């Protein structure tokens, strides 16, 4: 199973600990070294890519393909345009350029953001990682703005600014984040080990950024800044290429543990850097072969229905990174290796489109955000939608081409910005209405998303989730659901708070946002759900919906649309106890959640109610006796739990990431259940 992110879209998995046998945190921890007795060996792997390409993805065939092309043609095939290509740089829209200039002009000539050792050391000392990541990210974003403005204006001041930024990054002690670097676990350091650079997500990002900057401004730097390009090549060689080629113990390669989104993210940046910086087609061919063998291990984890267990937020930096890498491989091999025919690719491409609730709102699970930040590389699914002839994906991506928005954000990184800018079809794409499929059922993750009418945000939308508590970036969310009115979530999944050291450690589930008690889930005996693969939901009745219903655009599904789950194994219940839940979209304006349970008195863990039903609401919450109204942005729902009156608990949001999505607070509704056995149907109705 897959994925991950960058300081701006946040990221990741903490490094350091060695996993024990049966470690339930294996899905949420990034271990920097194999367990004692485990041998990390790059044995050839035969997965979906090998099944599609065979020996064409191995080094001998790639050497023959690339050796005949030569260095200049390989660089051209990347699609990254030099500043001399005015067909690209003269055609950037004023909104994009004006936005970049407004941020870049005031900072030009000022000192570049500092990255002191004390910021790096905070991760080891007090668990804070955000300060260091924000400082590094500020450097990268400033360099991106400078490179784009240098390419568009050809102004000496911007060329100088970009050269300064490149050297600043080259002089940075490490390109790895403090939360990922292995110097602490390996040597007990609170500072980086400059003698042994660690290749993580951001190291790959910086290498690719410098490589693209070199490609865009190389001629200008040759004239005005001799030596800058050589320095870039030296640093990328030491910090990225050498570790990639020589270290089989890097966990994300997949030689000794499961991979996730780190795999395609790092591999794509390594290969883009190699294609742009190395004057050695034979070596590039060997690196592509190594990368594809590793990537095949990631592709093998993807389910046939294309679901990503971390949700849409991580799709962009997991499956999306895979698509970028596969497109790059097709370009470098001049179409010799094209993954468009790999069956899972098309379904993975459709996943985020299927999760849209309305406008910027999406079904969020695990460490995901419910709301788009407008920083996504929308040109990526647009291009793949065109390649595969999927009009719905194309239209979904075009939904981001709204008036006033730039063609691409600088926050997404220089490579993604330049790829968007170089795509004339994307530059000229008009907005489109989102497809909003009527009913989606993804059995691999047990996720249902449905609404009354496809293509419309009118009425209510329901998302419900089963799965296991062994998913990537896992939250204890089995049996939880989301309700949106007019496309706006009102009963919600809290999502991802700001990452700290505790996030990817045995203290993970001490974080409120990751607990089942702060999801729309039941709490038999007041219990939290368990941790690890043994704690799971079982599907009792599955709904109808794409992708299984039919290829292409499926037919409409008659209401009600329901998912029934057995949640017994989600909790540490006693033998003979059980819990079932059915979530149903009954009509365009009505949702029913029916719980059935059988518990034992001698299994009670405290003096509270027999069980509790929790709901988490976003917006204004008003209780009148047993009726609760939740409203936000002109939308409202009324909740009735068969006459039960809930307790209300406000959560004042001081976490900037959560507040940026939900505002000042969330409210938990807790409905007490007094009977050891019984059933209850909760109704949720749209009232305006």
Explain how this protein is built:
By secondary structure, the protein is an alpha+beta fold. Helix content is 35%, strand content 18%. The protein is built from 21 helices and 23 strands. The chain starts with 13 loop residues before the first strand and ends with a strand. 53% of the residues are buried.
Give a summary of the structure in a few sentences:
About 35% of the residues lie in helices and about 20% in strands.
Structural class of the secondary structure composition? alpha+beta
**Overall average pLDDT:** 92
Sheet with the most strands: spatial strand order: 13-14-15-16-23-20-19-18
Q: Rough shape?
A: globular
Strand content: 15-25%
Helix content: 25-40%
Radius of gyration over all CA atoms, rounded: 25 Å
- Runs in which pLDDT lies below 50 for 5 or more consecutive residues are 1-25
Main beta sheet: 8 strands, antiparallel
Number of helices: 21
Distance between the terminal alpha carbons, to the nearest Å? 40 Å
Q: Tally the beta strands.
A: 23
